Queue: 3 jobs
Job 1
Amino acid sequence: MTEVRVERGSLDRGVAMVYKDYGRHVRVMFDPRETTESAALQLLCQLVPRLAGAMSVTRHLHA
């Protein structure tokens, strides 16, 4: 099971989400002006297929 650390924050216009795969965990930030958390996680699973059905989501506040 891979931990997915979800953050909400402001990204450049037109950028819905960014992510970094660290192996044991994946850090993803989405911009709520561009997409929803659910859509960002669906896209993340398409980009990192090993996460589908095998991730533990934790939410972090973006400072």
Job 2
Amino acid sequence: MTPGRTPSWNVIAGVASTSWLESIAPSSDGRVLLPVELRKRVSWASPKRSLALLATTQSDGAVVVAPLLERSDEIGTVGAVLEAAPAEERASLVFAAMATYARVSLQPDGRLRLSPGLVRHLAPVGDEPIWVGAHCEQVWLWPEAAWAKTLASAADTLRDAINGRKGRR
């Protein structure tokens, strides 16, 4: 998208004013530039200084990003679970937690600085697009393959819902 151009291509943005979806290219240094239209829809996404965020990798491959301070209870719970785990399970649980949770930062210019593991997860080949979305004060990132699966499932659900509404008229 050309900077300054009105994103008139997104016909649903007016109906879902707190949501945005766009495909972006990762930079070679492990950063992604969050689109301006997305940042307009998330109150914390235009910080005056660097903002610490928690990136949580979901089982479907999506990565959900939210302010770290808002998610500190979740990290505390993970710590308690790891501490209480039997010794023979602890290593695998610690590794799973480390692969699931990562601290990232959002710069005032809208660049999201990702951890090396997240860069590898989101763009394993290096030049694949990353899908980025916003909804209800969260930012979501998907690798291309995970987005394709998510879209296929969601598109079927949307089509069924639309067809159900048409049948009730």
Job 3
Amino acid sequence: MISIMSDHPVACAVPPQTPHPMWSEEWPLVLLLTAILAIQQLRFLFMKRVQAKQSDGVETTNTTTIHGNDNININTGNNSTVVVTTRSTNTSEECCNVKTQPTPQHTCQEEENMISIFSVLPKPVGKFPRLNTKTQVTCRRYMDNLAQLSAEGKIYKCEKTIERLRKVKMDPDYQVSLRHAATLNAINEGKFEKASRLLGEAEILLTDTRNEDEHRLRWYHQKSLLKLQQGKHAAGIQLTEEALSLVSIMAPGCISAWLLINHAWFLTKIAADEDNTNDRRALVKKAKTFYQQAIDHAESEYPMQMSYFQSRVPQYAKIGLAFLYLGCWQSVDSSRIGVSTDLPRDDIIKAKDIIEEVQNEGPVCNKSKVLLLLAKVCLQFRLGSYQEAYDLAEEAKKLAAKHYFWNLEKFADSIGKTLPMH
């Protein structure tokens, strides 16, 4: 017998120990989690700003969508989607109640643990997603509906609606969205000083919003649109070029589409003053690309949030293309309608086809009607039908005045006076 009180170490044979069964089963999971945490650190550097905004739990919405491909998509409200594979295609219950065919040892708790693992898997580094909380959905709908009122020429009704909403919707996101809507209304009415003041107020509030990037992009659109209407093309295109860097990192939608439309409009106006054939051709090619990108971005908007904008963007892009091909717009010194050199016959035919396409679709608002009439003026000018061009300019002038589009009324009047017959 060996005494346990002995002062001398005793060598004894220790039987070999087998690994704990739980360790042999779980060590791959431990390694996976370690790898995930390491990758998450890298992703954090790219997504810090977005995650900070999305971590605001005020309006997190969990949505479970069941598809016919045996998958359930669970939107966690932070722009993360977890896909759980099942064998059920006709149930709408949540995870723990979904009838599945898992292996017998899987329990609801284990499924929740699996969801937790997949929800932290890093996403590919790409464009930042746009927030889609209840507040942001409402902001987009406000801008869309109010823009429709303004584009129909219901300037006063739009203004009063905005004033009423600003008194009750105090959240910074609402306040910025409503000021942007008021800015567009003021620009349509030709009140540029008021528009500039509203933009200044919106800019101050931008950093207080939860959706700053999208609001800032809208601010760039409104600011550049103001410069466009004022004829300050150099300042305007500088704004749109600055904003393009923001467009490049954000998920597409109607807000980015309008910015691209503005950039293309600036290129269109510059091209209308360019008599060098090669330089003009380069501008036309570049502008066409931005018009098409604008249409693509509008198609990527969240469903049922900016339906009116989604219908307007393609028409504005097409009308802009018509002006582009015709080389027409009021020139900087107001002494001519556009390019003074002969245009390729193919460009005139392309413009004619586009105008007919928009005419057959039907303009989506009164502002589109005025712009379409002005495009017809330029087409008839290029075809040498000056009297018809003049009559169309007078029609556009009257329609613009009827709906309080004072800036378009001035343009219709000036383009009519610039026709060769006068």
